[in-house]
From TrEMBL:
Domain AMP-dependent synthetase/ligase: residue ranges: 20-393
Taxonomic superkingdom: Bacteria
Pfam entry (one): AMP-binding
SUPFAM superfamilies the UniProt entry points to: Acetyl-CoA synthetase-like
Xref: Gene3D superfamilies: 3.30.300.30, N-terminal domain of ligase-like
Taxonomic lineage: Bacteria, Pseudomonadati, Pseudomonadota, Gammaproteobacteria, Cellvibrionales
Protein name: Acyl-CoA synthetase
Naturally occurring in which organism (per UniProt): Candidatus Seongchinamella marina
Signal peptide bounds: none
PANTHER family membership: 2-SUCCINYLBENZOATE--COA LIGASE, CHLOROPLASTIC_PEROXISOMAL, ACYL-COA SYNTHETASE
Length: 543
């Protein structure tokens, strides 16, 4: 017998399995008080909200944008959207008016659920959003701050809390908007069964890729399992997947509601809730965690921590060493993944690993390959650069963007691949050196130079906390390699010393011609590099 896979059905099933008093969601903040939600509270509030969304005109497939930082109401809204057969649309809360208007219009959003802090931003563009019929405000008070919205709490408290009498489909979708390195945001369209095959059941059975799965693999959640700490923003895939997965298994989800990433609060939560695994985004999160551990001077035991999982960002060897020094029992899992695919490359490190300085090395996962521009498979050890491609469980494509879909999802020898754009070198042992995204490649004197390789090398220097590398105009070479560097606290190091250090690991033409220093490099809330802002700063400084 087989069981259909739909997130709304999944959470209905979990609701039935858990005892009402089981704690399923904890929201922690800087005050240390937090909010606690039981299975009964979450079941009733999400069922009520789902019913109200339908009563307000929501039909299967209608889009619901969530414009909020991490907080419990985001999770409630997410589950209610699934239960109502609507489509979740993530909104980057850092977007300016133009990007925000574009995303809400491009997604054909019918509902916008927003945090009170962003009411003014929405008010400025409401008239340009004729398709949006309902604005729902997440507010700390019982009533909304604006007269053009209804309070989310009012909707979630209205009703009998019973599950919806509704038939759902495995093909119901979830949108994951990604900004990429350039261009306007675009939505990866995931069918729910496909996404669960990637982040849920697929972890137990990698061969499974069907709208239905054997009944023996159906979940039997009892609650009280491994607590999950959500550090990354829910507006991005890694944070969102952590919540979907944890609640899908009936585990307790601990959510940080802080102004930006607060490493001290995160460490306190690890100890308080006995967190076994955390997911971060490379050095952008690892460095603050290490600094906080140093400052704590042993007051944070982190005894429960067993896994630190990093996704999509450079996690430099010296930061891995520092983390393993403090927490020798952990396993560090370094994943290369994207909004458009599962993990294409991975590295695992523990206290016995040899962590070399310089470029980060990963191994291809079984479904990943490296291709040249003309779609020839790169042979290990050939020295020829190529782009990563991953097959297996993939989204349908990008919403309303056939051109980008055709560019990102290709078919080679009858097999469909996703190519997010990462360029690599494949070594004889099938390990990888990441070179960067093709659209940020630097062309200096005809030589192609990829930022990731230089960034990883610079960040292996003890005095460098973070850096980004861009190409700036150069009369002689066309573009000059320019490093924008964030040094460790109170550190000082001359540019020539950093250049000499890089020269030890890479070819001379890759050594930065210019080294600029900043207090903080440009990164988004999820740790992703903002090369456009970095390039603009560098060009201004060098003018």
């Amino acid at each position: 017998m087989t069981v259909a896979m739909n997130f709304g059905d999944l959470y209905d099933y979990v609701d039935e399995q858990l005892s009402p008093e089981t704690v399923v969601l904890i929201e922690e903040d800087e005050s240390g008080t937090g909010r606690v939600f039981t299975a009964k509270e979450m079941r009733e509030s999400t069922n009520n909200l789902a019913s109200q969304l339908i009563a307000m005109g929501g039909s299967p497939g209608d889009k619901v944008a969530i414009y909020s930082k991490n907080r419990a109401e985001y999770v409630q809204a997410l589950i209610a959207i699934f239960k109502a057969r609507l489509v979740h649309v993530n909104v980057n809360f850092r977007y300016g008016p133009q990007e925000l208007e574009y995303l809400l219009d491009n997604s054909d959003a019918r509902f916008v659920i927003f945090e009170s802090d962003y009411a003014d931003h929405l008010d400025a563009i409401r008239e340009q959003l004729p398709l949006v019929k309902n604005f729902i405000e997440i507010c700390d008070d019982a009533k909304p701050a604006v007269d053009w919205a209804v309070a989310l709490s009012e909707l979630s408290n209205t009703g009998n809390g019973e599950k919806l009498a509704i038939e759902r489909s495995p093909e119901d979708q979830i949108f994951l908007y990604t900004g990429g390195t350039t261009g306007m945001p675009k939505a990866a369209m995931w069918e729910q069964y496909s996404l669960w095959n990637m982040i849920g059941v697929n972890q137990k059975n990698p061969e499974l890729a069907s709208p239905q799965f054997p009944e023996e693999l159906a979940l039997r959640p009892k609650g009280g399992g491994a607590n999950a700490l959500v550090i990354l923003p829910l507006m991005h895939g890694a944070g969102l997947y952590t919540v979907i997965n944890a609640l899908g298994y009936g585990n307790t989800c601990v959510l940080l509601r802080t102004h930006g990433f607060d490493a001290d609060v995160a460490l306190q939560c690890v100890d308080k809730h006995k967190i076994a695994a955390i997911t971060i985004a490379g050095d952008a999160f690892a460095q603050p965690i290490i600094t906080a551990i140093d400052a704590a001077k042993g007051s944070s035991s982190l005894a429960s921590l067993r896994f630190v999982i990093s996704s999509a960002m450079i996690f430099s060897p010296h930061n891995k060493k520092a983390l393993l020094k403090h927490c020798p029992e952990i396993m560090i899992v370094d994943n290369m993944a994207s909004s458009e695919s599962s993990t294409s490359a991975q590295a695992r490190s523990n206290k016995d690993s040899t962590l070399e300085d310089g470029a980060v090395k990963m191994q291809l996962t079984p479904n990943a390959k490296v291709f040249t521009k003309d779609l020839q498979e790169v042979q290990p050890g050939s020295g020829e650069p190529g782009f990563l491609a991953i097959s297996g469980t993939l989204p349908l494509g990008y919403y309303k963007d056939e051109k980008k879909t055709a560019e990102t999802f290709i078919t080679v020898d009858g097999l469909r691949y996703s190519i997010p754009g990462d360029w690599v070198q494949l070594h004889a042992d099938r390990s990888l050196t990441f070179l960067g995204r093709g659209n940020v490649c630097i062309n200096s004197g005809g030589e192609k130079i990829y930022p990731d390789e230089i960034e990883a090398t610079l960040k292996s220097h003890d005095l460098v906390d973070d850096c980004l590398v861009v190409g700036t105009p150069d009369e002689k070479w066309g573009q000059a390699v320019t490093a924008v560097v964030q040094l460790a606290a109170d550190a000082q190091v001359e540019a020539e010393i950093l250049r000499d250090y890089v020269r030890r690991f890479v070819a001379g033409y890759k050594v930065p011609k210019h080294v600029l220093y900043v207090d903080k490099v440009f990164r988004g809330a999820n740790g992703k590099a903002d090369y456009q802002a970095t390039k603009a700063l560098a060009e201004k400084e060098l003018t």
